[in-house]
């Protein structure tokens, strides 16, 4: 029955009241009674298939609701059912992967997300989700590859840009990472983000460069002056540390006076 249905794709798109006539015209090598029997069988098969797909969509919707309600176990059950009923329901595979990741089942998460991408590899949300979990798994170079595709498909998405920036930092491509951070959140916040991540990775001198540019943009920002004081001191620049500390104390005094 499935082979017959695949052999006549135009027939599948034909309205039910015209299917028998179309099938007779297309398969005139069969005796009339066999053609009619085959029409009935294929109709039943397609109806059952559509019912399964409808049920899959219902399970997907329920899975989304449970996921949003933070019932991850319930979401996994519903999404697994959706994916088994309709293996081409790519959104079910993708959300199932995210749910697995939340539960700490990373290998299952990657399998589900890869399945979603194989079926719909240009969907930016799927590309971003897969790249983000690869990044969490320490596969930074692979993550960059997928996150760049997500950003290319949706260039102004702040979340995609930020995720790509985070992955690039981990690969040591600091200048490129800053470009994406600045696109996501502007120059000041982008540089502050870079400085924070560079300090965590032990790149104090690179962090100082970003903080110094932040200080030019916002000279009295305590979130800039304090880490500058610490980093100058730690990196053998006592005069710069003293200058930043004086500015920090002055800013604090001014803020206190205003209160």
| Biggest pleated-sheet summary | none
What is the number of E strands? 0
Structural class: mainly alpha
Number of helices: 15
Percent of residues in β-strands: under 5%
Overall average residue pLDDT: 85
The ordered string of helix (H) and strand (E) elements is: HHHHHHHHHHHHHHH
How far is the first residue's CA from the last residue's CA? 80 Å
Q: What is the radius of gyration computed over CA atoms, rounded to a whole number of angstroms?
A: 29 Å
Query: What general form does the structure show?
Result: elongated
The helix content, as a percent range, equals over 70%
- Which runs of at least 5 residues are low in confidence (pLDDT < 50)? 20-24
Structural overview:
The chain has helices spanning 2-7, 9-12, 16-26, 32-68, 72-85, 90-102, 106-119, 124-136, 140-153, 158-170, 174-185, 187-200, 204-217, 222-234, 238-258. It is elongated and about 90 Å long. The chain has 259 residues and is mostly helical.
Topology:
Elements: H1 2-7, H2 9-12, H3 16-26, H4 32-68, H5 72-85, H6 90-102, H7 106-119, H8 124-136, H9 140-153, H10 158-170, H11 174-185, H12 187-200, H13 204-217, H14 222-234, H15 238-258
Brief summary of the model shown:
The protein is an all-alpha fold.
Keywords:
single chain; elongated; mainly alpha; 259 residues
